[in-house]
Specification:
- The structure is a single chain.
- The chain has about 160 residues and is mainly alpha-helical.
- The protein folds into 2 domains: about 100 residues, Winged helix-like DNA-binding domain superfamily/Winged helix DNA-binding domain (Arc Repressor Mutant, subunit A, Orthogonal Bundle), CATH 1.10.10; about 40 residues.
- The longest helix is centred in the middle third of the chain and has 21 residues.
- The chain starts with a helix and ends with a helix.
- Strands 1-3-2 form a 3-stranded antiparallel beta sheet.
- InterPro entries: Tscrpt_reg_PadR_N, WH-like_DNA-bd_sf, WH_DNA-bd_sf.
- It comes from Stenotrophomonas humi.
- This is PadR family transcriptional regulator.
Length: about 160
């Protein structure tokens, strides 16, 4: 196995130090959420290739409560977390850090997804992207229509493949 193959098979750490904390507070800042909803939202950011554990999320939520950045209210036997004015101030103070964490999460999601993609598919997508860039914007309408139709067909095929 070459060094490149080894790197491709090793998934990077999905989040940087402190990123989950920032992402959770940011999500609560967008509106009240249950802990489970927050876990699912972070998972969706990573196209479900990475899901934070309850053991990493709930202690952070408890810490937010201790810091008085959020308040929790009982909602059907579960806690719903609301941002407080202190939490809003924390988000405002750390706005750049939150944006950086979001960018790292998006990048990490792409890297993880690419690393978990079958090599033949990954290589074909790379070749396609390289070919599109090599056109330097020189397109004929007929080519655009034909390639768009093929991409729509490929998208439909991928969406129809049962996920197991």
């Amino acid at each position: 196995m070459t060094a490149t193959e080894s790197r491709r098979r090793t998934s990077p750490r999905p989040l940087g130090r402190g990123d989950l904390r920032l992402l959770l507070l940011s999500r609560i800042g967008q509106g009240p959420h249950h802990g489970y909803e927050l876990i699912q939202q972070i998972s969706e950011m990573f196209v479900r290739v990475y899901t934070p554990s309850a053991g990493s999320v709930y202690p952070l939520l408890a810490d937010f409560e201790n810091q008085r950045w959020v308040r929790a209210e009982e909602d059907g036997g579960r806690k719903r977390y609301h941002i407080t004015s202190l939490g809003q101030a924390q988000l405002k103070q750390r706005a750049t850090e939150v944006e950086d964490a979001l960018l790292r999460a998006r990048h990490s999601a792409r890297v993880i997804t690419r690393a978990n993609m079958p090599p033949a598919l990954r290589d074909a997508m790379h070749d396609f992207t390289h070919s599109v860039m090599a056109r330097h914007g020189r397109w004929q309408n007929a080519d655009i229509e034909r390639i768009t139709a093929l991409l729509e067909q490929a998208t439909a095929l991928v969406q129809d493949v049962p996920q197991g």
